[in-house]
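User: quick one, fold this
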Amino acid sequence: MTISIPGIRNEHGATTADVVAEQIALCKANLLTIDKVAVFRKPREKRDEINRRLRGCHDFMGMAGSRKFGCLYREVNLDPEAALVCEHAIPVTALVSLYESNIPFEELVFYPVALISRVSDQRFGRLGLTKSGHDLQRPFLRYDIAEIEIETHFGEKISCKDWTMSDHWKLVEKTPEIALIRTQVLRKINEG
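Assistant:
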């Protein structure tokens, strides 16, 4: 199984980076509107918007929904015929909290997502690790606890216990498809 970023179909000739940058801009604009308009559920509305846009960006990059082959990581010996899940190594609720603590949205979009079997995903639930057990510096620590083996899209097995965010960013840079999208998104954000 190799990495595959799905194409974007639209009449304007947009690239994946264009659509991801637009999602980021929409999120930031919507957060300003929520700040101005929301009274009763402001924090919840803001968290929901961040969550929705992060998942939207991942969907456009093939890391969510039915387009699942853009993930940089996958479970070792994954059966492509089995039910598969794109699982955020750091749960989205934690990513939302990171955004609230001033980690840029355009960075969070490129945090690790792994393609795993639904059976392995359910193991997180049974072990109480769905939204806990993660480590911000060692994003696959929950996988080590759940005994789920992970490899990069290059087929290199990683140590879930020891793999760091620094290792992740090196993998992003070594992956031309994702590195290009990231470079283009950052350029668009800085120009906008």
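User: anything notable?
Assistant: The first helix runs from residue 16 to 37.
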